[in-house]
Each structure stands twice: as C-alpha cells, then as structure tokens.
Amino acid sequence: MRVAHVITRMIIGGAQENTLYNCLDLIRDYGDDVLLITGPSLGPEGNLLDQAHAQGLPVKELPHLVRNIHPVTDWKGYREVKAAIKEFQPDVVHTHSAKGGMLGRRGAMALNVPAVIHTVHGAPFHPYQSALARKFFIACERYAARQCHKLVSVADAMTDLLVEAKVAPREKFVTVYSGMEVEPFLASDQLRAATRAELGIGAGDVVIGKIARLFHLKGHEYVIEAAKQVVAQCPQAKFLFVGDGILREQYESDIRAAGLQDHFILVGLVPPKEIPKYISAMDVLVHTSLREGLARALPQALLSGKPAVSFDIDGAREVVINRETGFLIPPGDVPQLTSALVELCQDQELRQKLGEEGRERCRKVFPHQVMTRILRKIYQEVLQSNGRDIA
C-alpha cells in the first residue's frame, strides 16, 4: 500500500506525534510505502522533522504549505501539494490539520486518489473566535468534508462537535484515539528520584504539572491564579510547566507579581521522548486548555499513574472520569480548580487510587500500534468500497 500523509507543519505537538507514529508504523509493521508531505516547521514550538529524517521516513517539505491564510500563498501551496501527491501516486492520502487537510483533500480528490482520509485532531472553529471567523471556518470544514471518504476523530467529542455544526453526517466519522509509545510512561517512576533531584524538588513537595505550549487558550493563567490559594493552603505545592511559547515572559511576570517564584519551575520546550521524565516528577497533572481534541498529556499522565485535573472540554471526559481517574472542572472555574488541586495535594492515597485506575484504563487503548492497526483497516475498507483490494 502506498500512503501519503499531509500535515501543515511538524512542530512538537499531539497531531504531529500522532502522524509520525502512524507513518513509521506503516513502514515497519506493514512494509507500506509512505511519504510525509509537510510545510516549514518554524517558530518556538520545536520541530519533529529531525526525528522523522533520523528514522528514515521519506519527507517532502513544501515552502508554501503554511498555517496562515493568504490567497496567493495558499494557491501555490495547493499546487505544490497536488504535484507531490501526483508524483507519489498513493493509494491513500491521509490528511491532518486545517490547512493541510483542506489542500491535501482537495488535491487528492482532484487526482482521483482511491482513499482520502482526514483526521480531526481539533476543530478549527471554537467559541473564542469572532462570529464571522467561526462561520468561515465551519464553511471551510463543510467543503473539505465533501473532499474525502472518511473522517477520523481523536475523540467522540470531536465527532459530536462537527456533526452539531453540520460539517458532515455522523456515519462519515469514526473515532480512533491518538496513539503513543506507552511503555516509557508505564515505567516512568524509575526516573522520579533523579528528575526531582535535578529540578530541586524536595521529598515532601507535591508537584502539579502542566504540559502545553505557552500560548493563547492553553490556560496557564488559570493555573497561576489557582496557585495563589493552593500554595496558601498547601505550602508543599510546586508547579511544573513543560513547554514554551510566545506568552512565556507574560507568565513569568505574573508568577513574580504573585510572589510565587519559589513555587514554579518552567523547564521550557523539551523533546517528546523526555516527557515521561518530567511526568515522573509530578504528582498531579493539570490541564486547563479551553479547546483541544484530546490532549495527549492526559493519557500520558494517567499511563504514568498520575491523576489528572482537567477543564471539561472536548475529549477530556473520555479519559478523565470524575473522582475515578481525576477531576473534571467547568472551563475557567478557578475556585473549583483550586479546590480539586488542594484536595489532591492533601491526600496521597487519593492521588494513588485515581492514578492507578487511570493507568489500567489507558494502557490497552493508547499504544500507537493499536492506532495504526485500526487506521490501516479503515484504509483497506475505503479502498475495497471503491473497487481497490490492497493488502
């Protein structure tokens, strides 16, 4: 089988890791011919292309496949994507992200590719946009949905959101959870003592961690606000931010203004392979993004045996079960966020109970090999329905 994946950029992020694992699994486990088509990966979010090259994944980098919308650039990007697909002659085109999804699907259908699949990692429209922007992106997604044979959601919540917006009928969707390398998380406690010593974390400290870009709508400001009361009631609390971005200086200023410098550790951007190391130092994961398909940090923390406190957005409730694997909080509700964090800080047995339950629920669902096996079956089903029987 010949499979082309199209994604706007290969920064360090959940959609990008998902795509990389899928590409590599298809090559290693099934002997497929795979090409990754992507644009420049610029900015403070890091770059996964080096990892792709190092593992022998064929990559076609297109200069005009970029995130920002511009008619001339997008036309050039479309022609580049279409030309790359035509040259590769794939049986399957699997697209990701809004721009890559739009241009990749249109180009693949124009070339009569037998199977065109798109994964919805997160909807490009959300309540925090202007009404005009939201209508525009919904219209774009409705158009793009007609340019593929199947839509894959990383969480049932994504399907519900897009069906409600009339992007496509429910029968066109299937949920496939975003896979990852689970073993390093299952074994992460082996790294705990050394990592906490490296970070200057004491034996009695309770570490509340957040893994996300320091960017708009990721919700770090809610954690900083809650930290004021958490630290007042639990002086042993420490906060660990993993990630970087354009809002770093603002958050560092907010932390200083609150007099919480001694309670916050910002480690910046780290390679994906080091995420288990930093989760090992945590006791609780907090996730306060205001929009996200299903943040990889949630199952990663649960696989590591750490309970999660999350805003109840998108797919979070599919892994964070209230008082079973963590706490679900109404988005933006700082008092409830504070209360949950204080309770977990003060109750080690509860942390252990919730974390162990989360580990058992996630360990069979999130291996990347499971994801790829399901996706490849979808490819085969679409190909067969279109008169192509490829093993």
Automatic annotation (TrEMBL):
Residues 28-177 form the Glycosyltransferase subfamily 4-like N-terminal domain. Keywords: Transferase. It comes from the Bacteria. Residues 195-361 form the Glycosyl transferase family domain. One of its GO terms (molecular function) is glycosyltransferase activity. SUPFAM superfamilies: UDP-Glycosyltransferase/glycogen phosphorylase (SSF53756). This is Glycosyltransferase family 1 protein. It comes from Bremerella cremea. The lineage of its organism: Bacteria, Pseudomonadati, Planctomycetota, Planctomycetia, Pirellulales.
